[in-house]
Design a protein that fits this description.
2 domains, mainly alpha
């Protein structure tokens, strides 16, 4: 077997394995999408697989007419944007100084940063800290505790270290300050990794709900993922379906309502990816190999 044939076989096997991996990730979402558009009879009888059966969108009508879901979606968008902006700001201002060899105690600081990746105070001390800071039932309880992800910080430090020192030296000769060098030279060259880390921060915040369970008891501050969690626990399904039944309209099965709510909560974050796609792959690769 020559090298060309071996490469073709290798590429074919890779394509097959990647295709199977894509199907494993995609088929559950397609099934949920099909259930959300299927009739109640088809859903309850288990006839829905990957295509809608008895097409209807009553579940989506109920989801969009429920103001608590709309309010939760709006709050989640606000929370995600605020958290992503502040997290990226803090990660940048922490990573850039740690690339400077003249910074005293740099290795000690890096040691403590790495330690936090393996050890933490635990859930109870974190709750006590948030409570004593009077952050319970505020948006800041969902933002401040996770402002910097140590792993993302290390990725950004590695990327900054890969930028040639000659660029910063030239800026210093021209009289640029550290802040000016960061804003005019470092950050424009770091768009791929910044977009990648920003997407990671946004997706992590969008999908998070455990901290909301601990810190938030006001329904006005419930993010969309907590509403889905409550729905899975059957705390909202009975309420929503009873509202529809009392109004004289058709009753909606819990499965259809859950599926429509999942799609309702998933599509907004999926729409962000196409805008960052051109940066995403290069950002992951460059942040992983440079340093």
């Amino acid at each position: 077997m020559n090298e060309r044939t071996a490469n073709r076989i290798f590429d074919s096997v890779n394509l097959i394995l990647l295709g199977l991996a894509v199907l494993v990730c995609l088929l559950p979402f397609i099934h949920i999408l099909a259930v959300s558009f299927s009739s109640n009879l088809a859903v309850t009888s288990g006839k829905v697989t990957l295509l809608p059966v008895g097409f209807n969108w009553d579940a989506y009508g109920k989801v969009f007419s429920d103001m608590s879901m709309i309010r939760s979606l709006g709050f989640t968008i606000l929370l995600t944007v605020l958290c992503t902006v502040l997290c990226m700001l803090m990660t940048i201002v922490a990573a850039y100084p740690l690339t400077k060899k003249q910074l005293r105690g740099r290795k000690v600081i890096m040691f403590f940063i790495v330690v936090t990746m393996f050890f933490s105070g635990g859930i109870i001390p974190e709750y006590i800290l948030v409570r004593d800071l009077n952050l319970l039932n505020t948006i800041w309880a969902l933002v401040l505790p996770g402002l910097i992800n140590p792993f993302f910080l290390i990725i950004l430090i590695s990327f900054f270290n890969g930028i040639p020192d000659s660029l910063e030296e030239a800026a210093d000769i021209d009289g640029s300050s550290h802040l000016g060098t960061l804003l005019r030279i470092i950050l424009p060259l770091s768009l791929p990794v910044l977009a990648t880390l920003g997407l990671f921060y946004a997706v992590g915040r969008w999908n998070g709900f455990q901290d909301t369970l601990m810190y938030i008891s006001k329904p006005d501050l419930y993010p969309i993922q907590l509403k889905l969690y409550q729905m899975i626990q059957n705390n909202m399904v009975s309420e929503l379906t009873s509202l529809e039944g009392n109004s004289g309209g058709p009753k909606i099965t819990p499965e259809s309502l859950k599926s429509a709510s999942v799609v309702f909560a998933t599509v907004p974050i999926l729409l962000v990816y196409p805008w960052l796609q051109r940066y995403f792959v290069s950002g992951v690769m460059l942040g992983a190999v440079k340093g």
